[in-house]
Amino acid sequence: MTGTAPVSRRQYLGTAGAIIGTTAGCLTGADASIHVLAAGSLTSTIEDHIRPAFEDATDHTLRPEYHGSTTLLQLISDGTKHPDVAISADATLLRTRLFDAHADWALEFASNRLGICYVPSTPLGRRLAAGTPWWRAAVDAAPDTIAVSDPALDPLGYRTLMAFTLAATAHDAPDLRADLDPATVTKPSESQLLADVETGNHAAAVVYENMALDHDLPFLGFPDAYNFAAPERADHYASATYTTDDGTRIHGRPITYATTVLNDASNTAGGRAFVRFLAANPDMVRDAGLAVPESLPTHQGALPDALER
């Protein structure tokens, strides 16, 4: 089957155990290791939830690395890294960068919501906790108060800029994006983004909801007009764009996490077992702070028979 197609959870649940059991029985030691390049926003999701559950259920060992999705896909496309599995926080970006040369299919398995997390004891945090609209409080904040991700390295960064653009329209504040510049400071990685908030270097950060939950920080989700969590607003999101250094224009789109097993994977069977495990356990993914609507999982490209039967 090609193109975008829903795949029922029953299909995954019905055969997940068989595939995991088969691969667990014939792969041990180093051969059972699965190298995963994953979006940085999934660090705690995988380490605290998915990895222990998967390793407990199988003889496989995950070897995850975490990077911004733009960075990890570039590492694969330029031949620097050769993982078994890739997981991107932008499904379209994964297809654009990997299809044809490196992968033939992608499974979309989760969504997320954009917003702002904060330290309640800070001046900005107190205003947010008191109900001041985030954008008014942010404009008034001291310089370098709000950490944001680098748009050149990961989708969180360019979604933040797009959200600021859409927020300007939503709140009838045409200069909002420029007015927010003094208060924001760009960080080179998603891990540093929240580490600097936790250590008190910054009062807040624009993040995905699961990241705030991972770090036990209060989270204010942006409205549907610019949180990239409402599929019915896809056309509206697409009105915001970001242009990369190489001239590629990226349009706003709903947040969707996608994964694939690479064509040159060293452990194809293990990689497929891991992808099936993600699709077959939506409650585990939800417990980690991600959203799994009824529309997921879906896929692009022709799924391997082992994943589609």
Q: What's the CATH class label of the largest domain?
A: Alpha Beta
**Strand percent estimate:** 15-25%
Shape: globular
Q: Could you tell me how far the N terminus lies from the C terminus, measured between alpha carbons in angstroms? A: 11 Å
The CATH fourth-level homologous superfamily of the largest domain: Periplasmic binding protein-like II
CATH architecture of the largest domain: 3-Layer(aba) Sandwich
Query: What's the helical proportion of residues?
Result: 40-55%
Parts with pLDDT < 50 across at least 5 consecutive residues: 1-10, 12-30
Give the tally of structural domains. Answer: 2
Query: How are strands sequenced across the largest beta sheet?
Result: 1-14-5-13-4-2-3
The total strand number stands at 14
Structural class: alpha/beta
In CATH terms, what is the fold-level topology of the largest domain? D-Maltodextrin-Binding Protein, domain 2
User: How much is the radius of gyration in Å?
Assistant: 20 Å
Order of helices and strands: EHEHEHEHEEHHEHHEHEHEHEEEHHEH
Mean pLDDT: 90
Q: Number of helical runs?
A: 14
Give the biggest sheet: 7 strands, mixed
Keywords: Signal
GO molecular function: molybdate ion binding
InterPro entries: ModA/WtpA (IPR050682), TAT_signal (IPR006311)
Signal peptide: 1-32
Supply the key terms.
alpha/beta, D-Maltodextrin-Binding Protein, domain 2, 5-stranded mixed sheet, 14 helices, 41% helix
